[in-house]
Amino acid sequence: MKTLNKTEILNLIVGIDRDMYGNPRYFIPAHALPVERGSIAARKIGLTKSRSGKRGPGFVFKSYDVTDDVNRIVDALSADETIAGVA
Fold it and tell me: What are the mean pLDDT values of the chain's consecutive 10-residue runs (87 residues total)?
């Protein structure tokens, strides 16, 4: 599986409806990140499994600063190889 860089991931992100508290939420397609959907590792870095059938498999996360949060997610995946499934 090809690993996407941060810019490519940012280009794939789609804004979705806000949560019940008004926090902005975003969708990342599953193929963009090397982590299993719904896994403990994904939840550990702030990603939840998308349950919408409209966009296909992927992740949902809350963010007020998408660029910063994508940097944090990618850095967490690259820092801990067991999360990314490399080990």
Answer: 85 96 97 92 94 92 97 89 51
What is the reported pLDDT for 76?
A: 92
Q: What is the DSSP string of the chain?
A: -PPP-HHHHHHH-EEE---TT---EEEEEGGGSSS-TT-HHHHHTT-EE---SSS-SEEEEE-S-HHHHHHHHHHHHHH-TTTTT--
pLDDT of res. 80: 72
Provide the terminal-to-terminal Cα distance of the chain, rounded to the nearest Å.
15
Number of CB atoms found within 10 A of residue 25's CB: 16
Question: Quick count: other Cβ atoms within 10 Å of Cβ 6?
Answer: 13
d(CA 15, CA 60): 10
What pTM did the predictor assign?
0.87
